[in-house]
Design goal:
The chain is mostly helical. It has one domain. The chain has three helices and no strands. It is elongated, with a radius of gyration of 15 Å.
């Protein structure tokens, strides 16, 4: 179980906070298994913004957990 009844279920469809948490969890799960191309080709770091996106995701998830 990733999220509880407060953020998942039929009653949460119109809840803005529940929608935000669902999107946040989906984004974490999508990126959990993704490999970073810049780990293999260092020149890709100049092109992609993957590391900054992951840092931003971590900050948003941490802010949610701190609430």
């Amino acid at each position: 179980m990733v999220i509880g009844k407060r953020y998942y279920g039929a009653e949460t469809e119109n809840n803005e906070k529940a929608t935000y948490v669902k999107k946040l969890v989906l984004e974490v799960m999508a990126n959990a298994g993704a490999g970073n191309k810049a780990d293999y080709l260092t020149i890709v770091r100049w092109i992609t913004n993957y590391e900054n996106q992951m840092m931003d995701l971590g900050k948003r998830f941490d802010a949610f957990l701190q609430e």
